[in-house]
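Minutes, structural biology subgroup

Action item carried over from last meeting: produce the structure token record for Twin-arginine translocation signal domain-containing protein (uncultured Phycisphaerae bacterium). EB confirmed the sequence was re-checked against the source entry. Recorded below for completeness.
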Amino acid sequence: MVTRRRFMNASALGAAALIAGPVLNGAAEEGAAVTGDAR
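Output recorded by EB:
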């Protein structure tokens, strides 16, 4: 039970990292492009 719970938490964190990584990178690039266009 404990090992399964740990595995579930680890897999959830891994999936969140895989999803959040590209999303944050895309947001940062879009933000830089927007500020660059504004300037």
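Discussion: The first helix runs from residue 2 to 38.
Next step: EB to file the record with the rest of the batch.
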